[in-house]
C-alpha cells in the first residue's frame, strides 16, 4: 500500500514558484498547503475539494481562474508516470509527445500518474465571490442569453458560470461568480463603456458580494 498524497511547495518569486503534488492528494489538501505557505499564490483548478489531483489534472482541470490562467494542465511543467514496462519517467525521459498526451487525455491511457509539477500563479490576498438565483418567472432565460453575450467581454479576472437546474417544476439558474480582487474593485470594472458588459449589471445588482 502506497500513500501518494505528498505535496511539496517551492517558493520563488511571483513567476517562479512551483509545487510537486502526488496523484493521490486532493484539491482541498493542495489548496490548504498553498494557503499555509503563501497568501498570494494559488493554482487554477476545480472547486470540488475532495477530488483527486491525479484524475482532475489528467482530464484537463477546469476551474474558476481559467479565464486568467488557463486550465490546470496549462500550468503543468513536469510529471512522473509509470509506463507499461514499469519504468518511472519524467518529462524528459517520456518525451514531449507523451507529456502532451497525458495533460488532458487521461493519465491512465498511457500509464499510471504518480505526481505532477506545476507553476503556482499570483493571486490577491482577497477575492470576491457572489451567487445570484433567477427562475423563468424572473426572466431567467433572458438573463442566460445576456450572460452568453457578456461572458467573453468581461475582464480576465472575473469568471461567471451559469448553472440551470430543474427544481419544483421550474428551471432555476444560479449565476456563480469569482473575481480576483475585492468587491470595491469589481463594481467599477462592470461599469466600463460597453453596452454588453453593462447589461450584466441586471443580475449583479441583485447579488450579495463577499470578499474573503
TrEMBL record:
Gene3D superfamilies in the cross-refs: 3.30.465.10, 3.40.462.20
Protein name: Reticuline oxidase-like protein
Pfam families, alphabetized: FAD_binding_4 (PF01565)
Transmembrane segments: 97-118, 173-192
Keywords for the protein's UniProt record, in alphabetical order: Membrane, Transmembrane, Transmembrane helix
Residue span(s) of domain FAD-binding PCMH-type: 1-123
Organism field: Tripterygium wilfordii (Thunder God vine)
Domain of life per record: Eukaryota
Lineage: Eukaryota, Viridiplantae, Streptophyta, Embryophyta, Tracheophyta
GO molecular function: FAD binding
Keyword Transcription regulation: no
Entries under PROSITE patterns matching the protein: FAD_PCMH (PS51387)
Amino acid at each position: 500500500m502506497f500513500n501518494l498524497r505528498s505535496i511539496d511547495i517551492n517558493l520563488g518569486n511571483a513567476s517562479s514558484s512551483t509545487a510537486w503534488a502526488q496523484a493521490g492528494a486532493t484539491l482541498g489538501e493542495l489548496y490548504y498547503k498553498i494557503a499555509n505557505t503563501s497568501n498570494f499564490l494559488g493554482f487554477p483548478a476545480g472547486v470540488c475539494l475532495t477530488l483527486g489531483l491525479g484524475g482532475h489534472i489528467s482530464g484537463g482541470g477546469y476551474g474558476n481562474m481559467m479565464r486568467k490562467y488557463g486550465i490546470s494542465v496549462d500550468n503543468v511543467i513536469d510529471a512522473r508516470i509509470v509506463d507499461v514496462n514499469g519504468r518511472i519517467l519524467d518529462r524528459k525521459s517520456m518525451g514531449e509527445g507523451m507529456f502532451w498526451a497525458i495533460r488532458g487525455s487521461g493519465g491512465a491511457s498511457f500509464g499510471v500518474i504518480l505526481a505532477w509539477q506545476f507553476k503556482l500563479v499570483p493571486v490577491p490576498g482577497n477575492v470576491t465571490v457572489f451567487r445570484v438565483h433567477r427562475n423563468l418567472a424572473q426572466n431567467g432565460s433572458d438573463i442566460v442569453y445576456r450572460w452568453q453575450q457578456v461572458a467573453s467581454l468581461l475582464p480576465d479576472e472575473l469568471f461567471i458560470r451559469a448553472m440551470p437546474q430543474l427544481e419544483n417544476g421550474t428551471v432555476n439558474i444560479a449565476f456563480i461568480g469569482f473575481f480576483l480582487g475585492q468587491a470595491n474593485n469589481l463594481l467599477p470594472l462592470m461599469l466600463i463603456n460597453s453596452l454588453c458588459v453593462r447589461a450584466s449589471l441586471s443580475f449583479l445588482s441583485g447579488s450579495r458580494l463577499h470578499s474573503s
